[in-house]
Amino acid sequence: MSDVVILGAGIHPFGRFDTSYEEIGATAAAAALADAGVAWKDIQAAYLARMYLPATSGARILRRLGSTDIPIVDVEAACASGGVALRQAILAIRSGEADLVMVLGTEKMPRGFMDPRMIYAPWQIEMGMSLNPSYWSMRARRHMHEFGTTDLHIAKVAYKNHRNSVHNPNAMYRKEFSLEEIANSPLVCDPIRRLEICAPNDGAAAVIVASKERAAKLGGNPITIAACCHSIARFSADFRCPADSMSATANNPGPTEVTGHMAYERAGLGPDDIDCFEVQDTDAFCEVEIYEELGLCGLGEAGRLIDEGTTEIGGAKPVNMSGGLISKGEPVGASHLGQVVEIVSQLRGQSGKRQVEGAKVGLAHVLGAGGNCAVTILKR
Amino acid sequence: MANDTGGPRRAAIRDGLLTEPLDDLSKVRLQGSRCRQCGEVTLGRNSLCPNCGGSELEVVPLSDRGELWTYTVVRHKPPGDYRGPEPFRPFGLGLVELPDGLRVMSPIEGDVDSLTVGMPLTLKVAVHHTGPSGEDVVAFAFAPAR
Ligand SMILES: [Zn+2]
């Protein structure tokens, strides 16, 4: 899939703002156009990733950039929405329908826990099975039981991500916490604590993608999209779906493993070829599990990886240089494109104090409701 | 579920989740659907198998004994129309592995600080709350086995 490239990227900071979603989205879209050196009137199609916005939000946002009649399509796949929108743009280019496309992710989210009716059946809500972190926490507890992963391992991941975010002007919190502060923050759902989970918020991110041929005519230093894959959890492979029961006999690999493998194959690369990663740290344990599922280490070895500092900036496999969702917040539709913006910045060597020295290849991963998973691999 | 003896009407919190009748709750079990094609068992009465898509499903009562496969403690009142005790009390939530070949998501009764993976549990079926038409809504939990 080396036939589609990213010409430019733009972001509106992730946080909580009084401004409208239209303004937040248009800010990121305009920044991506400026970065690509492309005019809005030259864009032939646009995709908006969003989950909590009203109908035709894409058109409502992008009309602000000027009169247009191009197809603008809203895309939703829970936390993986951004990856799915990017994939739609790639497919449009590969089909020959277009060669210059905008992909925008925008979200403006309600405060606090998300409305459970978006995801859960009424009886699950009535019985108290509708608190998202409870599902992540049960995964953590089982991993601790099987592999000896500890509370400290989970806290160390949160510590790393909060510390990285201090150098990211687009993150919400940008505050370093001590390991003690994290390990003593209130339990939300045992064993996951307040400073180990992400909060829904507002934000936007955008990229301009083009065929290689079109990019060559436009000049500049495009980033190659080596893979962009999406899949949903196979039967009983992820109980964050959320499931009311799980098979004790089916043994399907989880969506991260499946989608990651697909992306590695498309890119002709393996985990050891990747210089930097941005992954779905909905909670700090989620990142722990992803280390194993993306092949950064073997099954049950994530604790050791954390203790050895492998995933810190400066380690062999840096993860969530941006600070991750734990510190940026998760504007669901925008989160994957936010990761892509970070990887583009890393591959261009523009990430300042959070720069991974000499990064040439980067991977972005999201996972959410419905077992929706997207993995994008970029290279320069 | 109208009940001809004149007592309060009862209904399962989810249609097809529990065996019937609901008169004597000590005799009520969870139900599952066993696929004749692939053998997978899923919770409740289902018309299609979410594994293979098969449509020949047999509704079977599930075991009332299981083991805690994993758990958490819900420390904050869940959002939306939660109908648990007022004021809110933290409660255990877990996946209970049944000998029938599935793990059921369930509230876990008892002391939240004494939960351990592998602990034996038994099913508790009880009236959970009053429904919109005044009916008793019946739900389930698992509790430490005695
Ligand atoms: Zn089947």
Automatic annotation (TrEMBL), chain A:
<feature type="domain" description="Thiolase N-terminal">
    <location>
        <begin position="4"/>
        <end position="212"/>
    </location>
</feature>
<dbReference type="InterPro" id="IPR055140">
    <property type="entry name" value="Thiolase_C_2"/>
</dbReference>
<dbReference type="InterPro" id="IPR020616">
    <property type="entry name" value="Thiolase_N"/>
</dbReference>
<dbReference type="InterPro" id="IPR002155">
    <property type="entry name" value="Thiolase"/>
</dbReference>
<dbReference type="Pfam" id="PF22691">
    <property type="entry name" value="Thiolase_C_1"/>
</dbReference>
<dbReference type="InterPro" id="IPR016039">
    <property type="entry name" value="Thiolase-like"/>
</dbReference>
<feature type="domain" description="Thiolase C-terminal">
    <location>
        <begin position="256"/>
        <end position="377"/>
    </location>
</feature>
<dbReference type="Pfam" id="PF00108">
    <property type="entry name" value="Thiolase_N"/>
</dbReference>
<protein>
    <submittedName>
        <fullName>Thiolase family protein</fullName>
    </submittedName>
</protein>
From TrEMBL, chain B:
<feature type="domain" description="ChsH2 C-terminal OB-fold">
    <location>
        <begin position="60"/>
        <end position="123"/>
    </location>
</feature>
<dbReference type="Pfam" id="PF12172">
    <property type="entry name" value="zf-ChsH2"/>
</dbReference>
<feature type="domain" description="ChsH2 rubredoxin-like zinc ribbon">
    <location>
        <begin position="29"/>
        <end position="58"/>
    </location>
</feature>
<dbReference type="InterPro" id="IPR052513">
    <property type="entry name" value="Thioester_dehydratase-like"/>
</dbReference>
<dbReference type="InterPro" id="IPR022002">
    <property type="entry name" value="ChsH2_Znr"/>
</dbReference>
<dbReference type="Pfam" id="PF01796">
    <property type="entry name" value="OB_ChsH2_C"/>
</dbReference>
<dbReference type="InterPro" id="IPR002878">
    <property type="entry name" value="ChsH2_C"/>
</dbReference>
<protein>
    <submittedName>
        <fullName>OB-fold domain-containing protein</fullName>
    </submittedName>
</protein>
<dbReference type="InterPro" id="IPR012340">
    <property type="entry name" value="NA-bd_OB-fold"/>
</dbReference>
